[in-house]
Amino acid sequence: MVARNSADPRNVDVFALAKNGGLVEGEIALVRLLRLCEGLPEQSGLAAWQVQGSIGQGTGKTGVISGQSLLHLHVRADLLLDCQRCGQPFAFPVDAQAMLQLVESEADLDDELSVLQDDDEDSFSDDEDEDDENAAAAPSTGHPEKVVGSRHFDLLAQVEDELILNVPYVPRHDVCPGAQASAAAKQEPTERRPSPFAVLEQLKRR
After folding, report:
1. Which of 32, 119, 166, 196 is deepest in the core (most CB within 10 A)?
2. Model pTM?
3. pLDDT (tens digit per residue) in 47-76
């Protein structure tokens, strides 16, 4: 594990990080993220991560209210996954970003749930005449995810959570290697055998 400042990434005062606009970044071997590695092939790469603190300045539909403590998380890694179609391992790149709002207690998480439910009900009432295709294409509300902050916050657990969220439910190649070879073989020109009638016609002319 490498962190590019003096802070221990498993023991960070994230409220101070947000207040001061601090930055913590580093790298960690994927094999050390035990929850992520459970059920996956053996991992050999690194996860590069960065957490930037800030205080919210906006209001309204973005879900960011002035004065809120925020963390901006960015994580990059190449995960080794087993293709569920052909069984062969392949590298799956993850480049994920998330905005987290820090709250003081579990009760604040419950408040967020009720707010989101109210927003969903308003959205359905406004858009109930739209067809399903348009509804699926509607933009996200962009609300930050609420997490309970502390003066001894484990940033690496949050990094691991973000990687887990980005593992596909059914990992597979875009095109499996075997299917690629099969397609190439089908495209190779085959030698055309002469028509037996053409051979017979040539014999008659001799």
Report:
1. 166
2. 0.70
3. 999 999 999 886 656 667 788 999 999 999
